[in-house]
Structures are given as structure tokens and as C-alpha cells.
Amino acid sequence: MGEKIAALTEQKTNQQAQHTALLQQQEAVAADVAAAQAEEGRATEAVQHRETQGHAAQLAHSEAQATVQMAAVQHAQTQVRAEHTEHSLREALNALADDAVTLHAPTIEQMADDPDTHARQAAQRESLTAQIDRLGAVNLTAIAAFAEVQARKVALDAQIADVAMALTQLTEAIATLDRQTRAQFRQIFDAVNTRIGPLFAQLFGGGEARLNLTGTDELNDGLELIARPPGKKTTQLSLLSGGERALTAVALIFALFELNPAPFCILDEVDAPLDEANVGRFCAMVSAMSDRVQFLFVTHNKTTMASANALIGVTMREAGVSRIVSVDVDRAVQLLES
After folding, report:
1. Do the domain assignments include residue 337?
2. What is the pLDDT of residues 64-109, one digit of tens each?
3. For the chain, where are the E strands, in sequence order?
4. Which residues contact 142 (CB under 8 A, 6 or more apart)?
5. Of 44, 257, 265, 314, which shows the fewest CB atoms inside 10 Å?
6. What is the count of structural domains for the chain?
7. Domain encompassing residue 83
């Protein structure tokens, strides 16, 4: 009797240690999932922010480019006018120089009193004045404005290149996360499908079950559970009876627990639609998995109660007054055996 008590005590200690380890594992997994979701959210927000900056920079770049083009046109027009004026002045000076060379000194003195010479010089002066007037007002700040706008364009080009590079990096990061998520989903999906078949057959005494994707997009499409109890055709979960649906759901939950055990599991009258044979198989599976998961039942079935380690009930000896009654089955067995 003492050896059995020691063995039970050791088993309880091991279960408590496993329970603590599973809690730590669940917290670690939850932290990893939260971190991944936060990282994906930050990446999406960063992409949206970068896209907004990129649009603004692109608009500013377009405005600066238009200003640069306008300044370049004004600069070119001013340069053409200046060259034309310079050419006209040079032609006039060359003409005057030629006249001065061809004429000797007495002739020059005579020109001072020659009316024709005065008329010709006046006509040349009026022609040059008209050419200068046609050039219009000269924008003396065009060159400085052009240099300023050109510098702004260079700065905006650098900003656009930086935004484009950041957008590319964020897009690649999101694509990497998407690939990793899809690969992990496919891995878990295949692992669950591998486990659900044997568990389903164990609960039903035969048959088969599997998970199917409702589409081609793993992350956005749904899942459907297909089952074939012994002696029946393959059908969807919604077409099964209440007891068959309950056992199929239990097979799926236990397949997930085998892949990643939870610290505890609450089952609310899962055994209610089951007959005695199915209740026995259900309890046997729960007992086999209880070394990894702590199960809490809500049940009225005596067979299920008999498989539990502890019972907690609610009684009402007086009207309107509820009372909690608990029984440690293992302790009660020890007392009876002693």
C-alpha cells in the first residue's frame, strides 16, 4: 500500500512539473505569435507610411521638374536674346569701323557737316534701339533661380530614391513573412491531418477523417472536416448525427493537442450524445492523454465520472442555497484500501 501511495505521489509531482512546463511553453508560443503579428503590423504601417511619403515626394519632384523646365526655357530665351543683341551690336560696330577705315581724315571732317551721314547714323541708332526693345525685359535673377530649383530637384530625387529603396525592402520583408507563414501553416495542416485519422478510427472503432482546404489560398480560405464513420459514406461534419459530430470534434481537438498540448482543456457535456460504448472509448482516450493535458469535465455520465481523478459537484440542501462538494477520487481509493 505504501509503495502505491509513493507511486501516486511521484505521478502527481511529475504531472505538476509537466503542467508548469506546458504553461511556460504556451506563454512562449503566445509571445512568439504576438511578436510576429506586431512585426507584420509594423511592416504594413511602415509600407503605408512609405507609400504616402513616396506619393508626396513624387508630386514635389514633378512640381520641381516643371519649375526647372520653365526656368530652363526662360534661361534659354534670355541667352538667345543676349546673343542676338550682341551680334547686332557687333555688326553695327563693324560697319562703323569699316566706314572709318575707308574714309580719310578730311572726309571725316566733311561727314560732320554731311546731312546724309547724320541721317544714316540716326537710322542705325533707331534700328539698334528697336532691336533692344524687342528683346523685352531681361530677368536678371533667372540664372540664380534656375540653380536653386536645380538643387531642390536633386534633393527630391535623392528622397525619392530613398523612399523607393525602403519600400522595396519592406515589400520583400512582407513577402518573406507571407512565405514563412504559408509554409508553417502547410506544415501544421499536414501534421494535423496525419494525426486525426488514427484518433478518429480509435474513437469510432474504424473509419477515417481528414481536413480539406476550401480553396487554393491557405491563409484566407477556410477548412472543412470530412469524416467517414464505419459503415457509412464519406460526408461533411454537418451531415453527421450529434454523437458522431461530437466524437469527430474530439478527434480534431486531440489531434491538435498531440501536436501542441495545451495546459488544460474544458469539455462541456461532450459525452451527452454518446452511448456507453462510445463513452468508454472517449474516456480511454482522455485517460491516455491526461499525462500531457489536464482535462476538466462538465458531465452527468457515471462512466465519465468514474474515470476522473477528482469530482466537484453542486448541491442544494436548502432552497436557494448552493453548496460545493468535492471528492478526491485517488484519496478516497487510498482510504478504502487502507
Report:
1. no
2. 667 667 766 666 666 666 666 666 656 665 665 555 555 444 454 5
3. 208-213, 223-228, 235-236, 264-268, 294-298, 310-318, 321-328
4. 71, 74, 75, 78
5. 314
6. 1
7. 35-182
